[in-house]
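Q: Given only this backbone (209 positions), what sequence would you predict?
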């Protein structure tokens, strides 16, 4: 595991994408609070519940899609955003990049619970059979999830190690996509991948295998 060139950080950004029929199903149970009789208040309460569902939609592959991915290693620094080509093309390009990169180890931040299963589900939705096998096993030896050690926010660990600062937060992604600020989205995504890689490198002397 000491060959840094074979360790690649991977980070994805996601955005809410809820078909109308699925939205109707997810919000069908939204009702006003018991005891509320004012129609205006009931409507506001229902809307608040519907908005809460949509606020979390980007975090699930059921209701969200990948809008950007970034990979970062000693030799490869690349980000690709979906500025019109569609998610399927974006995912195929990611698989191609991973397959030809020659990387043995993928490093992520919280990727075991988010990035990797999210990608797997979206691959399945598009019927993609990836060339590069995603490390889906809970403790896959080819996957370094720095969340296991650096569990606090990525930006805080960047500060602690004197790394380049994180560019904003996850809550900014939706606004960037809606405004079609693709360059800013790409810069944000790539910086997260860079910090993830740098932190993974700090763990190398400690890891065994």
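A: Predicted residues:
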């Amino acid at each position: 595991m000491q060959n840094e060139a074979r360790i690649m950080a991977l980070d994805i950004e996601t955005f809410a994408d809820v078909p109308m029929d699925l939205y109707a199903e997810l919000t069908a149970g939204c009702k006003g609070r018991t005891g509320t009789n004012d129609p205006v208040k009931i409507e506001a309460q229902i809307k608040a519940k519907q908005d809460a569902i949509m606020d979390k939609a980007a975090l699930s592959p059921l209701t969200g899609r990948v809008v950007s991915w970034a990979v970062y290693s000693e030799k490869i620094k690349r980000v690709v955003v979906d500025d019109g080509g569609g998610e399927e093309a974006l995912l195929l390009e990611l698989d191609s990049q991973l397959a030809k990169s020659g990387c043995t180890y993928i490093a992520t931040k919280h990727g075991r619970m988010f990035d990797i299963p999210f990608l797997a589900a979206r691959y399945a939705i598009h019927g993609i059979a990836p060339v590069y096998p995603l490390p889906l096993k809970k403790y896959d030896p080819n996957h370094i999830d720095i969340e296991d050690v650096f569990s606090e926010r990525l930006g805080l660990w960047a500060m602690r190690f004197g790394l380049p600062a994180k560019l904003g937060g996850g809550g900014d992604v939706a606004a960037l996509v809606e405004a079609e600020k693709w360059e800013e989205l790409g810069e944000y995504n790539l910086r997260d991948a860079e910090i993830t890689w740098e932190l993974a490198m700090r763990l190398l002397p400690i890891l065994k295998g």
